[in-house]
Amino acid sequence: MRDLKAIAQTFFLDDYRIGLASVLALAAFAPQLALSGLVVAVASRLCAERLAVGANLVRSGAVTLNGWFTGLAIGAFFAPGLGLALALAVAVPLAIASTVVCERLLSPWQLPLLVAPYIPAFTVVWLSFSGLPWIAVADAQVLRPAGNPFELLGLGTLRSIGQIFFTQDARLGALLLVVLAVRKPRLGLAMLASAAGAETLAWLIGLPTWQIEQGLHGFAPALMAAAWITGFKGLRWPALVGTIVASPFVESGVLRVSANLGMFGLSTSYLVLVWALLLLRPVHDTTGMTQAWGKLGQGFNRA
Question: Which domains are assigned to the chain?
Fold first, then answer.
């Protein structure tokens, strides 16, 4: 049950029912991703407990959460086969080590881990395995082109919610919104509106259609909306508005840089925006950053 609670922390919630519903929703549309995520999440927690590594991080759910996302990324970018199995096995120690290292690097700045550790963990796996001739990588997903701007923005908005779990499926995005809205109606509505706002802005400023079509600009604002609704770190509505406005520009830059490096942008834009907003808060506001919440690593609190 605590593994499911850790997965629910994706949306800044501590509810195993949300974690279970999220896993089941993902399994309905992308079973390989759901299974890969669960394997690495549970194995990471069990190994970290057995090795007595990062006890606080294990209790907080950070190891499980980043194991989950590492597994999701591997399931999304590797095709079924021996390569996928080996990548998942290697991902377990990498997810644990990356979580411990990132916590030590970020704690002096009082910045939350969120899902930062899975990015270096997956990147090491990808750079190590993807070039081997006997390992198959997943084919790029082909999306049905939108017939008009309204369909483009509607599908892009829903896909941006699915993108949280590496799935460009509007049906998954819609189902996740329903699950979250049942638990917290304002949460589902805020995530939908924020994703739609960022996707619309990206379209208005003329960013490439394929980025809007895939929902790449809406997932960070959607998660920031979840942070705002749940009171994470005392982030308020101006932070959400800033994220909606900045997300298309930041995500576009991340995509350009990552493409030049031959890597994936993953959740980089989301982390950059959250950390920047937290660091830019007035000094008198930072007292709330040290209150214990005990989720997602040291210094991670609910205001």
Answer: 2-129 (1.10.3430.10), 149-290 (1.10.3430.10)
> Among candidates 38, 13, 75, 266, which has minimal Cα distance to 163?
266
The CA distance from 294 to 49, in Å, is 17
Per-residue pLDDT of the chain (303 residues; tens, 9 = 90+): 899 999 999 999 999 999 999 999 999 999 999 999 999 999 999 999 998 887 888 899 999 999 999 999 999 999 999 999 999 999 999 999 999 999 999 999 889 999 999 999 999 999 999 889 989 999 887 787 777 999 999 999 999 999 999 999 999 999 999 999 998 999 999 999 999 999 999 999 999 999 999 999 999 999 999 999 999 988 899 999 999 999 999 999 999 999 998 889 999 999 999 999 999 876 544 444 333 334 444 433 333
Residue given tokens 């590594």 in the structure block: 53
Inter-CA distances, 302 with 34, 191, 224, 250, Å: 28, 19, 14, 26
The whole-model pTM stands at 0.90
